[in-house]
Amino acid sequence: MLDWLIIGGGIHGTYLSLYLTRRRRIPADQVRVLDPHPQPLALWQHFTANTGMSYLRSPHAHNLHYDPFSLITFTRTNDGQPLADFIEPYGRPSLQLFNTHSQTLIERYHLDELRLLGRATGLHRLAEGWQVATNNGTLEARNVILAFSNTERPYWPDWARTAQAEGANIHHLFDPAFTRATSPGHTLVVGGGITAAQTATALALESSGSVTLLMRHPPRIHQFDSDLGWITHQHLDGFYQDADYARRRHLIRTARHRGSMPPDVVRELEAAVQHGILDQRIDEVKAVRYQHGKLYLTLESGDTLTTDRIILATGFETSRPGGAWLDAAIKAYGLPVAEDGFPIVDQRLCWSEGLFVSGSLAELEIGPVARNFIGVKLAAERIGAGL
Ligand SMILES: Cc1cc2nc3c(=O)[nH]c(=O)nc-3n(C[C@H](O)[C@H](O)[C@H](O)COP(=O)(O)OP(=O)(O)OC[C@H]3O[C@@H](n4cnc5c(N)ncnc54)[C@H](O)[C@@H]3O)c2cc1C
Q: Which ligand 1 atom is the nearest neighbour of the CA of 43?
């Protein structure tokens, strides 16, 4: 039986595997990470490459190591120095620097050797831990961390689903099977946040004049997707003191600047529009008709738009991640959930003895930043506190 099994080997799971083995000195043969992708951070790399983004939204301290200075230290090494590339404010690293630093950590600490290929499909309590059913057999561990969010569930508006079912050239940027490339004809990018803006700008630079960005609202400018006070006592003290989970959910919803982007992304978007390489519309899809390979859209304003391809940058589903197998475990073991279906956990993020959460499953305890990089840093400190 393993000591620790982490379900999900993306940003959160990989961070936790480093944290447990190096910071908390759990022997490496006692820690495993279950994930359906052979390589760590597979979805992160795919999604970020698809957007064409150059810089992270997070500061450099929010890196894959528990040492906040690890990425800066890396830029002073022979390997890292040529990649030292940041954008101000807050010293946000380039995607290339972040990814190379992450890969360096994975190799240095042999984190890929901790991985087990597979997908969790069931969770059963044992006398001294948990049995995890997977598509590759069963695993047993004294402690299990559920370290996945909704990154496998891109959000599709109903009209888009219907058009897709009719055979239209319509994709979600966060579909693991979709790789963004230029395609002949016109592309419409749909979405109001940072990802939509970055994708549309990148596409417009590659195929000038044949890209439209359709946003429901004008750009909402926020440096981060929630205020910095949500990682300090400024907002968190009040959040922790409130034992009402419906109110906590309300605080999370209002704190998250959904569909927002930092000023530098807005500047690039505006420059692309001003130079005439990108068409930006503030409007909403009312109806879509697919005919002879073309998509004909009617917008709420009454305007119409014709396109050859649609790329959705509409984020992820917001309901509790996990699906049917987690529903079954919740039912079987009476795992406590709030009205919104999300776990009620203790301060150590413990849902039931030996069962811990990170990412959006920890949202009601960690707050609005739970899904982000800083969220796993906060989660690891909580989970590791008792070790
Ligand atoms: C384009 C983009 C840019 C972003 N930029 C930032 C940023 O600058 N700063 C920031 O803080 N956040 C950023 N985010 C948010 C960021 O993606 C998340 O903070 C982070 O990737 C979430 O990590 P994760 O481990 O939860 O998800 P992932 O990295 O997607 O990993 C989850 C893993 O769990 C696996 N999994 C799911 N279900 C199961 C199962 N049943 N069994 C086994 N494995 C399973 C998945 O296959 C996946 O490999 C960005 C997101 C995107 C899409």
A: 30
- Ligand 1 pocket, mutate which of 372, 377, 378 (most atoms under 8 A from CB): 372
Kindly give the distance from the C-alpha atom of residue 54 to the centroid of ligand 1, in angstroms, as a whole number: 18
Its pTM surpasses 0.85: yes
Domain's final residue, options 312, 329, 358: 312
Residues with CB under 6 Å of ligand 1 are 7-13, 34-37, 42-44, 47-48, 51, 56-58, 62, 119-120, 147-149, 151-152, 195, 359, 371-373
**Residue 250 falls inside a structural domain:** no
pLDDT at 182 over 80: no
Which residue among 39, 189, 373 has the greatest number of ligand 1 atoms within 8 angstroms of its CB, and so is best to mutate? 373
The answer to whether residues 58 and 98 belong to one domain is yes
Identify whether residues 268 and 379 lie together within a single domain: no
- Contacts of 159-163 with CB under 8 Å at 24 or more apart are 159/285, 159/287, 159/288, 160/190, 160/288, 160/310, 160/312, 162/288, 163/288, 163/290, 163/295, 163/310
At residue 65, the pLDDT reads 98
